[in-house]
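ok here's glycine oxidase:
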Amino acid sequence: MLPQETVVLGGGIIGLSCAFEAARRGHRVTLLESGELGGQASGAAAGMLAPFSENTEQPDPFFQLSLNSLRLFPQWVRDVEEASGIKAELMHTGSLSLIQHEADLLPAQGRLAWQNQWGAGAELVQGSALRKLEPNLSRHIEAAVFNPEESHVYAPKLVAGLIQACRRLGVRLGQHAGRLARLELRQGGGAAIQMMNLEKEIQCDSLLLCSGAWAGELESWLGITIPVHPIRGQICSYPGSAEELRHMVFSSQAYWVGKQNGEIVCGASEDVAGFATGVTEKGIARLTSASSSFYPFLDNRALIRQWAGLRPATRDGFPLLGRVAGRSGIIMAAGHYRNGILLSPVSAKLAIDELEGRSRSDELRPFSPNRFTYI
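and the structure:
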């Protein structure tokens, strides 16, 4: 029997995805967000779906989770688009990971060997083959790893689509609810929640905790260790077309992604700045310097936008995903760092599966939200 009332705490991409998944399975859902829906890392993200480019060393559980989510993404996006009427602009461009030094060739070949065992279909491209794939790339780059399966979405439209889909499914969306003022976990299951900007206490049978970079604030309420901290990611964009930048391109200094709205997004300069979300001259300068080096045609183009978002990082780089120990009906989905967009469909599926008692223990064990409490 499904729980009568489900509350999702947090209105970023993970919270919205969990609310969407719960609602379409028949739950009565309330989502509470302290500020603007999708207003932090979710709306600021470049929207890259790149498990092979982001995981270059080994097929660990995080890579497997990411690959699973990539392969859920096309149907999941179609479901969101059908439910909302908003196109998320999923683009199957493939990606290029640039090889800048001859010493990097051998590690790249090792990466190709294990990733192709997982169906990457990747190849090493050099010289004229690389120029054909990406004509505007600087001539000092002689080789790259090409991953044809990797894709990207336009994050603001995906967020807007999820918000609209949730509305149409009857999710009660409470934004600008303020920070959590009180959380009472009932012994028999469920919870009572009080938000600072809401007069009424909210009762629920199950609670999904999707607070992103603010998940650490839940430690005192839950009695577990939650080592999540914010990493500021600074991003900028240039005017440009999909013809000028044909693939997602990764280097050791920056990445570039061409969007359908006529922007080439460049990111991300990362630093630890607490919960500050402003851009800095130094952070953006790192990106524009890299752009001039790798894509000279961008050198004289004025930036369209500069922005930043907070990425929720954990101590070991794995997200917190699963049931909170000893708490019936309390599920956490947080700490996705720079992969929140990519991991949205799989996180929502596993979180609601766990809520409904359908998950396999081996799927979630590496990501247990309780794993830092006992070490």
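+1. The mean pLDDT is 93.
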